[in-house]
Design goal:
This protein has helices spanning 5-25, 35-49, 70-83, 92-103, 109-119. With 120 residues, the chain is mostly helical. Helix 1 (5-25) runs antiparallel to helix 2 (35-49), helix 1 packs across helix 3 (70-83) and helix 1 (5-25) crosses helix 4. This is Nitrous oxide-stimulated promoter.
């Protein structure tokens, strides 16, 4: 299933954040992830693949739907808290996109479901 630009960018952003976090916390080489981080990244990508909002998705912390299990959500938060501020220099475009996404209002799931029904 092909994904739109938004989901593709979200995947690039979480991949870049995970690389920074893993490099600094697990002392892996440049652009190399440990098994634990690969597992978390795969989980995050699967969550993005199944996001009910897809291209209209808000920043995950603003979303009314919690796609992540509590444990995985906390692990991803740790990664984002650490890597987020460190993304600006190596990945300025991804950083700007993420900041702009946080300014976008979160759509309501019920409203989204109703608009999908109208399109059918």
């Amino acid at each position: 299933m092909p994904f739109g630009r938004r989901i593709t960018r979200e995947k690039k952003t979480i991949t870049a954040m995970m690389a920074i976090y893993c490099r600094d916390h697990h002392h892996t080489g440049h652009k190399r992830l440990c098994a634990e981080c690969v597992s978390l990244l795969d989980y995050a990508h699967r969550r993005l693949d199944t996001c009910p909002f897809q291209e209209e998705k808000p920043a995950c912390n603003l979303c009314e739907v919690h796609c992540y299990s509590a444990i995985m959500r906390e692990r991803v938060r740790d990664v984002m808290r650490y890597a987020g501020p460190r993304m600006l220099w190596p990945h300025p475009i991804l950083s700007l996109g993420h900041i702009l996404d946080k300014l976008r209002p979160a759509p309501k799931l019920k409203a989204r479901a109703q608009s999908d029904k109208k399109r059918r």
